[in-house]
Specification:
about 25% strand; globular; about 525 residues; single chain; 11-stranded mixed sheet; alpha+beta
Length: about 525
């Protein structure tokens, strides 16, 4: 017991549950030889050893111990190892572009080595290519398999086109990976969207999310119901394990209380899905916005007549109801320094430029003038009711006219006061920008909006409370900045500027938001 206490005192460690899949025997001995700790090496990041011992899994500071045994890594020729698994949509184009951009910025040479159709790796080395310093291994498959690899200790990071599910969260906590829905356990790399597509020859131009759910459930099976030809609807989807298909089930079918029918043509990639839909006038599919090919995207509409189309700006602001963030999930364990530097790089301006050039919607904030608000103010005029409604509309225009809207928005989980995963990532992004001095000397106004359900006075009060909650989250996330250099304030206009119809849960979710306006 005395020796165990000495180990606890002498080493920095973290006890977690879990078992090693592949490891080697090592003995860590203090510099004076008085204390030793034996076990199987699970990992080494160049600074810390991660060892499975009789006391559990320990993380030990390598500067205070000597390593003995066949599993000991080389301290002089250390190569940072990182395994990344999951969505092919993220892994085939965007992540390689980010790795190469990171190498260029840090003065390293990046060499890509293909192993098979789903596996490749990047060797990062000194500029002359003589000394490897990092090896980033990729397995590109599906979101489901990425989480399975993480739980099996065969991946360090997961690329996901959907939020982690409750069952995966519970399993991750059981094996010591932490609470993966915490703010520091996931980040949004870029934005995508679930886009309803048809053939360019199909006369239908818009669809409601409710009708989409009913089509996928088999309740609507003829194009005539949507204003098209009297012909059956042929449904095309990604394979059931893909993130985009699972996002459809989680965010469209479950909210509607419906189940997807079996009579669906599945595709192994977005490209093959879009190609098949483009060729078939009777086809309808749901594809990634970044890969719709020659197919025709449908606008989302509702009974009130509002229409929202997926484009770069509506996806970036999350005004489009079926925005799909592209996540990177990070377990609660120490990664090599080079890997941590890469993760920090993904939040930078150069990384956002690379993301945009790769064909995805980046997260770099954009300022949008009042004159560029388009249909948003037209919608506001349409719903203004009576003298009180017109007075609220006038106050909103007078307040916002001197400001510019920032493309960053915040929304809350359905039926909850907690920010959703995209918005939690947005808080971190904005906090980093404030810490970097991007908004020094400027005013940021957090403006709350609500849906139109219930009394207008209550909606205004709720919208103000949401704006205040976002302000508090931003203030809590800013660690090193002098907030006296940035003026943070709140305002609210309740139901005054709807983005979508309030007749569905999806429309109400879009309308319940907090925007940032800057001066």
């Amino acid at each position: 017991m005395k020796q165990f206490c000495a180990v606890l005192w002498a080493a920095l460690f973290l006890v977690v549950n879990g078992a090693a899949v592949r490891a080697d025997d090592v003995t860590l001995r203090s510099q004076d030889g008085a204390i030793e700790l034996s076990g199987t090496l699970l990992g080494f990041d160049g600074q810390y050893y991660r060892v499975q011992t009789q006391y559990g899994e320990l993380t030990v500071d390598g500067s205070g111990v000597l390593c003995e045994g066949p599993g000991c890594p080389s301290l002089t020729d250390f190569v940072a190892e990182l395994s990344i698994s999951g969505s092919s949509t993220i892994g085939e184009v965007m992540m390689p572009a980010l790795v190469e951009g990171f190498a260029l910025q840090t003065g390293l040479k990046a060499e890509r080595i293909k192993q098979d159709d789903t596996h490749f790796e990047y060797i990062l080395s000194t500029p002359d290519g003589a000394t490897p310093v990092g090896r980033f291994r990729f397995r590109v498959s599906r979101t489901d398999e990425g989480f399975a690899d993480l739980l099996a200790d065969e991946a360090d990071l997961v690329m996901a086109l959907r939020e982690i599910r409750s069952g995966e969260l519970a399993l991750a906590a059981e094996v010591g990976l932490g609470k993966l829905d915490d703010v520091n356990r996931s980040r949004v790399l870029a934005l995508d969207a679930m886009t309803v597509i048809v053939s360019p020859t199909n006369p239908v131009s818009a669809i409601s999310v409710s009708d989409l759910a009913r089509i996928l459930a088999g309740d609507i099976d003829n194009w005539r119901t949507l204003g098209g030809a009297d012909a059956p609807i042929s449904i095309h989807m990604r394979d059931a394990q893909s993130g985009i298909a699972q996002a459809v089930e989680d965010r469209v079918m479950q909210l509607a209380g419906l189940s997807l029918i079996d009579d669906v043509t599945r595709h192994p990639s977005n490209a093959s899905l879009a190609e098949a839909v483009a060729r078939d006038q009777l086809a309808l599919g749901v594809a990634s916005y970044s890969e719709i090919g020659n197919s025709k995207p449908l606008a989302l509409t509702g009974t009130c007549g509002f229409q929202l189309r997926a484009n770069r700006l509506t996806i970036k602001t999350e005004d489009y109801p079926l925005t799909a963030p592209m996540f990177l999930y990070i377990p609660a364990r120490r990664l090599p320094k080079l890997a941590r530097e890469f993760l920090a790089y993904t939040r930078t301006g150069p990384a956002q430029i690379i993301t945009r050039r790769a064909g995805f919607v980046d997260q770099a904030p954009e300022e949008i003038s009042l004159n560029a608000q388009g249909d948003r103010f037209a919608n506001a005029i349409r719903v203004a009711d009576g003298e009180n409604g017109l007075a609220a509309l006038k106050r909103m225009v007078d307040t916002l006219a001197p400001l510019r809207r920032l493309s960053t928005s915040f929304r809350f989980e359905a039926g909850a006061a907690r920010l959703d995963a995209q918005s939690r990532s947005n808080v971190q992004q904005l906090a980093h920008a404030i810490e970097a001095g991007v908004y020094d000397g400027r005013q940021l106004v957090l403006v709350g909006f609500s849906d139109g359900e219930g009394p207008a006075e209550g909606n205004l009060r709720i919208a103000q409370q949401r704006a205040q909650a976002v302000k508090q989250a931003i203030e809590a996330a800013v660690e090193t900045a002098d907030l006296s250099q940035v003026r943070l304030s709140t305002d609210a206009f309740g139901e005054a500027m709807p983005m979508a119809c309030d007749d569905t849960s999806w429309g109400r979710q879009v309308n319940r938001r907090v925007e940032i306006w800057v001066r």
